[in-house]
Amino acid sequence: MEILIPTAAAMATQKLQAGAVASLNGKRVAIVSNGWRSMEVMAPQIDLLLRERHDVAGIRRYSVHLNRPISQEILDSIRKDCDAAIVGIAN
After folding, report:
1. For the chain, which residues score pLDDT lower than 70?
2. Which residues contact 56 (CB under 8 A, 6 or more apart)?
């Protein structure tokens, strides 16, 4: 999985890459939200669509701070526990 981080220069030096996911069938998917209201409204719908249309193995929701870069702990958890991620800032 490739993780693109459009924030602080220190984070931008990380090179994080992985192959593309051809299908979500049987995959573990992360939904990442920074708490904007529109993403909080959309996330349950995304969850439902992933389960109904793509037969995912599981979905893990992550909440990140509105005005800070994603933490290394959350990045590590996504890498370890998920095959794909949907990241919404929804502003």
Report:
1. 4-19, 89-91
2. 24, 25, 26, 27, 28, 29, 50
